[in-house]
Amino acid sequence: MELFLQQVVGGIATGGIYACMALAVVMIYQAIHHLNFAQGEMATFSTFIAWTLLAYGLPYLAVFPLAIAISFVGGFAVERIVFKPIEHAPVLTHIVVFIALYSIFNSAMGFIWDFSIKTVPSPFPPGRFLGSNLISNHQAGMIAITLVVLVLLFLFFAYTRIGLAMRAAAANPDSARLVGIRTSFMTALGWGMASAIGAVAGILIAPLVFLEPNMMLTILLYGFAGAVLGGLTSPPGAVLGGFIVGIVENLAGTYIPVIGGELKLTIALALIVGVLVFKPAGLLGRRIVQRV
Amino acid sequence: MATTDDASLAKRASLPASVDVAEPRTPLLSMGNVGLALTLAALLALPFFTEGFFVFQMTKVLTYAVAIMGLNLLTGFNGQFSLGHGAFFAIGAYTTAILVEMGGFGFLATLPFAALICFGFGFLFGFPALRLEGIYLALATFALAVATPQILKLSPLEGLTGGVQGIYLFSETFGEPPVPSWAPVQSIFGVDEFDAGTYWVYLVTVAVVVLTYWILTNLVGSRTGRAMMAIRDNPIAARSMGVNAAFYKTVAFGVSAAVVGVAGGIGAASTKFVAPDSFTFFVSVSFLVGLVVGGVGWLPGALIGGAFIVFVPNYAEEVSKGLSGAFFGIFLILMIYLAPNGVGGLIRAAADRIRRRSD
Amino acid sequence: MTFRRFTLAASAAIAVAAAPATAQTVVGVTDDSIKIGNIMPYSGPASAYGQIGEAMSAYMEMVNANGGVNGRMIEFVSYDDGYQPPRTVEQARKLVERDEVALIVATLGTPTTSAIHRYVNARKVPLLFVATGASKWGQPEEYPWTMGWQPDYATEAKIYAQYILDNVEDAKIGILYQNDDYGRDYLGGFKEGLGDKADELIVSERPYEVADPTVDSQVISLADSDANVFFNITTPKFAAQAIKKADEIGWEPLHLLNNVSSSVGSVLKPAGLEASMGLITAQFLMDPTDPQWADHPEKVEWEAFMDEWYPDGDKTSTFPVQGYSESATLIHVLEKAGDDLSRENIMAQAANLNGFRAPMTLPGVELNTSPTDFYPIEAVQLSRFTGDTWELFGDIISSE
């Protein structure tokens, strides 16, 4: 039982990483109704910017918002420059451009900052959280910030005009245009916000896994998995999904003999696919009814 | 049913809305057929004019082309996403490797097995895929791709797969695929014993490309193909007309996987080594890139897509070693700007224009 | 398994039978140039190692600026394989068949080099000083054209095993290993070194995948197994994570870290120097951040090299050190070969290193090879991390 609890708590700790990224995934999904494969690299890029600013000697409290702001502008710009011209191209074309962006960001980061691992400091005091072996102060702080971002996002989408407009633009662009929403601008805004949340995720994750160009390679996948599991239309679902992925993965690694340790990720993914088969919209997502 | 809905549906399914469902039979000497005949002639003539390395590279291009055609059947003609076809490529490659090494098979004889086994896996994977659409299917298949290398090196399967070490093919001849005695490759092309294997695999690959193209074109033109496309264009209408969507979707998945599996088999024979690290999810990603570059829903585009994924990274590396990935990405984006519906889209548009002028 | 052994034996027989007696092949050599090929992961997940290739390119430029080797300029062609074995095959064939290089040097990684192992041997192209420590690079009978360079993983692991047997009472060993060729090599060697006691002493083994974001949960469960010895078989990023995590949760075992990740600059510093205190590893290269080498003439020369020829390189990383030292070994071989730069003679010279001292290897390390011994470096020395530097202890352990 003790081992079980430990693995669950440990899973929550790692799940915090996934939850953080899953939020960014949900954000971009709200904006473009698709997953952005370059999102991890963009978040890593933001983290490198933060790292560079810190290296210049700026205080953390200034760097954090600054990096987020830069990322917002960057995400906005990427949409305007890269995606605006192919607005009407098929979705698959967009996916391929995501792949291209992934390649560009990854390669550029390696070129600028090289591939050796870098340390990003934590804003929280070092040490274990409440004396627990399983969660450090940083991990607890990261989970707290994730929850704060979650609440902010929820408020944004539910109560602000612009948040509602953004949802409308993504869900039904034609009708949204008819009621006077600048859908194209909303998309760009969504990119900016996704990029900003990605920056938060990156800066918080980096102290745990170390910063290098491939930092987000698989974390993004876990983020996808968490978001899809929880429901791509639901920020709370995404966070919950992230935690569940972390816990399931840990338990699989501990309790399934022989293959458990080697197939942690596979088992977690298989479970998610299983859940999706029975609940295609995810745990907390809305079922999207397609009208004919 | 409003027309705008139709268009957006087609867009959502990521397809050029202009793919004709039931084109009248084209005459034998159409522009397209002449183009295909010329392409085939060029492929057959190629080994006479180049050296072993280029033949090897072209084998790679054609291997990708076969895989892209397989993916195209699923995505282009049936509207199902897959980011996980690298898994079937891996299964095909391992099937060939295991049969060659442990079963003493000739490489050619393993390909039907690769097809069969991958059909089975693909068909089975088609069932959960039935319940998943669009982005969810994309994630499920992506998960498959990510899990592939881990499953391949699983220790309980080590006896079969060679575990983390992988499998060398053609041990008996120390790595060169043996050329069957009825194929006088050496004398025809005037090459040494090393290159004979390379040329032999190339010729087999050309044959597989032709065969795959022939089978898939016929399939697409058949009743089954029309059913698949009907499901792609409007699943609800198709279903209400009595098309058994579940059956056609799983079959499309199976056939698509089988084709990719054969490509995997050839890939194993030309690389002569399979290992888990060879089948990361980048393989699936490159298929997708090739598919989109060549043109979704246009089978010959596979050749262009294959060439793109083999040659463009090499070119990008020549431009800059440190920034090769960035240049690859930039080339890819430029390509997309130039031809948002793939090269297939460009050619189709050009053909339309010519046809209209001649009418 | 028996089947594999059979095929190995069979291929060995063929390779031996097929070796011609006298034919000399000179490829990639002119009166004023030698063409040398190299394959590195400059892109993809293993790109950190690309520094080895960059350092080698820089070294060759330096050699050329100093008049080349016996008057011949070196044309160093280094390609990127992104750590994908099929791409390694493509690049190797390009080097051999299109660029027609005299030899290939220092390909990086076990799966990638495995993919071309047979190819270069079938074509009889020297594949020298591969930058991987798998033990399979030293099989001159089956693979007379492939040679390793660094101490092989299994041997290194055996040294740790011996150290535990000699120094730790009631050892309870927990192992974290990367689940691939490299990790399994270490694991296998380690168990062999422990012998009959392996089952009794090892209390926990946890694999991780390169795809795992962190190894935190593995480290926690190893600590839970009450292990008092931690054998850490990880690549740099995961090593740093494991060291940091073990320290964070207050687990203080005897911590043995594989040499792969012993770089102070790129592993221990990020992990935390304090947290790294007491780590034990086996070394064969001078760590560039280690103050005890500051005035060593080879180190001074290396610094000058880095400043002039590879200013972008990371001076705290061991990768440029390895690239530098491997390059020096290769140049030594080419110099010895003199004007007979046939592939046969290059291979023969590589297999005839008599106590060559590659710069920046630890004092006392010599490179020895013979036609039956294809492991150039077989000596390591244990060292302990004091909090700011590695401190060598004990004798140089050689398995020659």
Describe the structure.
The complex is a heterotrimer of chains A (292), B (359) and C (400). By secondary structure, chain A is mainly alpha-helical. Chain A is 73% helix and 0% strand. Chain A is built from twelve helices and no strands. Helices cover 73% and strands 1% of the residues of chain B. Chain B has 16 helices and two strands. Chain B has a two-stranded antiparallel sheet. In chain C, strands 1, 2, 3, 4 and 5 form a five-stranded mixed sheet that branches. Chain C starts with a helix and ends with a strand. Chains A and B meet through helix 4, helix 9 and helix 12 of A and helix 1, helix 6, helix 13 and helix 15 of B.
Structural classification of chain B: mainly alpha
**Cα-atom Rg of chain B, whole angstroms?**
20 Å
Low-confidence runs of chain B = 1-24
Helix content of chain B: over 70%
The biggest beta sheet of chain A reads: none
**So how many helices of chain A?**
12
Could you estimate the helical fraction of the residues of chain A in percent? over 70%
Cα end-to-end separation of chain B:
32 Å
Strand order of the largest sheet of chain B: 1-2
Q: Which structural class do the helices and strands of chain A define?
A: mainly alpha
Relative strand content of chain B: under 5%
